[in-house]
Automatic annotation (TrEMBL):
PANTHER family listed in its UniProt record: DNA POLYMERASE III SUBUNIT EPSILON
Any Pfam family hit: RNase_T
Lineage, top ranks: Bacteria, Pseudomonadati, Pseudomonadota, Alphaproteobacteria, Hyphomicrobiales
Name under which the protein is recorded: CBS domain-containing protein
Source taxon at top rank: Bacteria
Alphabetical list of InterPro entries matching this protein: CBS_dom, CBS_dom_sf, DUF294_put_nucleoTrafse_sb-bd, GlnD_Uridyltrans_N, Ribonucl_H, RNaseH-like_sf, RNaseH_sf
Length: 703
């Protein structure tokens, strides 16, 4: 279990709900007589195991206090000391985040007891549900346990016992997670910062002698990674074309072939040829052969190889980064992966030997856990690992565009897995399987491979048949809604612009999408084309990729054939002037929105000209490079945009990872004053140049 950081979503933290009963309410004098604790995992209270300890305080328990919690001197007679209880408590909670109601009191009492017993004290990371409830519902008059529980419709049992109050605090915390998410508080760091802003409540605790209930979030220690695994694709490491044999081939001949070719596996299919859909193949490895020979030596050599082959074939995209292949092999305990192209066709094989060139000490912090997550909480836990990797890769001076591509890969994997889980939920609820073939699409920056750490839920669905509001559309409406909810819980918020398959405008049959394209290219005003352009960045992540391919090909053909359409898209590029009359930046709270004033003009220029000139590349970088190769636009202007694109992504990623660990909501704005003078000059020069991007597009529209 990795320690929680400020980036860890509340739903994903490993926590322990705790409570203490004492000899009195004065934290400066009270002695501990009972400690209760229970675990919290994946946003739910884990009922077993639990901790319930009575402690002999070494002094009489006042009778008026016993009336509250019911614990008398007789109850603690013969109980262990705080020293004994503390060891059990520490073993139970481990490195988990502690959660409690008015936990500042508990922390203060524990610290005094530890010092009295000459035990080392280090304040644990903690959250107070009283403060969290104040944030989630500031209109609640009383934020003691009972009113909070009543508001959240929770029942409390065992009130004023340490375990009973610990369970109540745990249940309240779990119920507060979605309420806090409504207020854009999703992570541990954001919750800590929000609690620290409640100065009146904190001051009242200080006056009562309580400890600070939460800590200010800090970035974890820098973790180096081997950049090789994050820089190289599976396609650059695989062996290809793959060796394929017919299913009927005798095992003896297959062994001879493997020895002759010095390979550790072969693929098996009825046709015995590569370049077919990945589902047509099985695999036979050295270990498969040895096991069969060991168990049935007399017949093994004459068996058809199909009887030994393993199916279904485990595969990975050629465009995936090496770290994902390492994670998948490790998770599934296998040594070979088939490699497929984006259309699902077999193109190669990757073996553990191919990965030996990676340094043995490589830190692969992103693995394959998204692919087998069971629910949104597990997806959230995996997604929360991303900021650490991004921070490390920036430190390794990896091209920021490559880092953005890695983020996009994770976003696409997250969307794909969420779609699978949503589909399973729909069937469990009795809505049946998908009514026809469909493809889940990621749009915008995720589709281009240029995601940052504040991605939107830009997604869509194209399905094979059906009319708007028809039976098929109704099923996919449910799928889109469940997908949106799951992604929001996982850490990718709902798209404020509504670009989600849950909305009718972003799902439809192939014919419906084609009709939409026809409508787009006939629009006469740029404002009528809001959110249309990001559809041209689509990437299929789940389902029938041929549907996506047909749709995007049609969209490009029609967009290219109607110059006015591309021209209108270009006219949407106006972003306003971010400069003051004195030439400085107009800042908001000391920050500048460089996505709006920097990235957007570059991305829109590349996309609009790509549509106009029939360029099928998906990424901004590839589009600009293709424009240069076709001599469209001045080479100097295009290269300036290329360099500026990388610089802006780097600045935003650095700012966003800093903000995530500091508990600051992630945005597309950067602290200009934190930049070096050279960076400020370079940024100002680039944005001034981009003010004329719309004019450049207009001039190049008919180049």
């Amino acid at each position: 279990m990795k320690p929680a950081t400020g980036a860890t979503p509340l739903i994903a933290i490993a926590a322990a709900a705790v409570d203490t009963e004492t000899t009195g309410p004065d934290a400066t004098k009270a002695r501990v007589i009972q400690i209760g604790a229970i675990g919290i995992a994946h946003g739910k209270v884990v009922r077993q195991p639990r901790l319930d300890l009575l402690i002999d305080p070494g002094e009489a328990i006042p009778s008026e206090v016993s009336l509250v919690h019911g614990i008398t001197d007789a109850d603690v007679d013969g109980a262990g000391t705080f020293l004994d209880a503390w060891a059990q408590f520490q073993e139970f909670v481990g490195d988990r985040i502690l959660v409690g109601h008015s936990i500042g009191f508990d922390l203060a009492v524990w610290e005094r007891e530890c010092r009295r017993a000459r035990l080392p004290w280090k304040k644990p990371r903690a959250l107070c549900v009283r403060l969290l409830a104040t944030i989630a519902n500031p209109n609640l008059v009383d934020h003691s346990l009972e009113p909070i529980a009543a508001w959240l419709r929770l029942e409390i049992a065992g009130r004023h016992s340490a375990l009973g109050d610990a369970i109540a605090a745990g249940d309240i915390f779990a119920a507060l997670i979605p309420e806090l998410r409504k207020r854009n508080i999703r992570t541990l760091g954001e919750a800590e910062v929000a609690c620290l802003a409640l100065s009146d409540a904190l001051e009242a605790g200080h006056r009562a002698g309580w400890a600070e209930p939460v800590s200010r979030p800090q970035a974890p220690a820098f973790q180096p990674v081997d950049p090789y695994a994050y820089r190289h694709s599976v396609g650059s490491l695989m062996s290809g074309p793959p060796v394929v044999v017919k299913s009927t081939k005798p095992t003896r001949q297959v062994i001879d072939l493997m020895v002759k070719r010095k390979i550790s596996s072969v693929l098996v299919s009825d046709r015995g040829t590569p370049d077919q859909p990945i589902e047509d193949y099985g695999i036979v490895t050295e270990r498969d052969l040895l096991r069969r020979i060991s168990s049935d030596a007399e017949r093994a050599f004459d068996m058809p190889v199909a009887s030994i082959a393993t199916r279904p074939l485990i595969s990975i995209r050629a465009a995936a980064f090496a770290y994902r292949a390492i994670g998948r092999m490790d998770r599934l305990k296998i040594r070979h992966l088939a490699v497929r192209d984006d259309g699902g066709m077999l193109v190669g094989v990757l073996s553990a030997r191919d990965l030996l060139r990676l340094r043995a000490a490589a830190a692969i912090d992103l693995d394959d856990t998204i692919e087998h997550a069971k629910d949104a909480a597990e997806l959230a836990a995996t997604w929360s690992m991303l900021p650490g990797v991004v921070r490390s890769l920036i430190g390794e001076a990896i091209d920021p565009r490559v880092v953005a591509e890695i983020i996009s890969d994770e976003l696409c994997s997250l969307t794909r897995r969420a779609a699978v889980l949503a589909e399973q939920q729909i069937q469990i609820e009795g809505h049946g399987p998908p009514p026809c073939a469909y493809a889940m699409l990621v749009l915008g920056s995720g589709g281009r491979g240029e995601s940052l750490m504040a991605p939107d839920q830009d997604n869509a669905i194209v399905f094979a048949d059906g009319e708007p509001d028809g039976l098929e559309d109704s099923w996919f409406k449910i799928l889109g809604a469940k997908l949106a909810d799951m992604l929001d819980i996982s850490g990718v918020p709902y798209c404020k612009g509504g670009v989600m398959a849950a909305n009718a405008a972003f799902r439809g049959s192939l014919d419906t999408w084609k009709a939409r394209v026809e409508d787009w290219v006939r629009r006469l005003r740029p404002e009528d084309l809001l959110n249309v352009d990001i559809v041209y960045d689509l990437r299929p992540v789940h389902g029938d990729t041929t549907l996506a391919a047909q749709f995007i090909e049609y969209a490009y053909e029609r967009g290219h054939a109607e110059p006015v359409f591309a021209k209108l898209l270009g006219e949407q590029m106006t972003t306003g002037n971010p400069f003051t009359v004195f030439g400085g930046f107009q800042l908001e709270d000391g920050r500048l929105n460089i996505k709006k004033h920097g990235l957007f003009p570059i991305v829109a220029t590349a996309r609009t000209l790509a549509i106009r000139h029939g360029i099928r590349e998906r990424s901004t970088r590839a589009r600009l490079e293709k424009l240069i190769a076709l001599d469209i636009g001045g080479e100097r202007d295009m290269k300036a945009m290329l360099a500026g694109h990388a610089m802006l992504i780097g600045l935003l990623l650095a700012q966003q990872t800093h903000d995530i660990y500091a508990g600051i909501p992630v945005s597309n704005r950067i602290d200009v004053n934190a930049l070096t003078r050279e960076q400020q000059i370079e940024l100002k020069s680039l944005i001034k140049r981009l003010l004329s991007a719309s004019d450049l597009v207009r001039d190049l529209m008919f180049a």
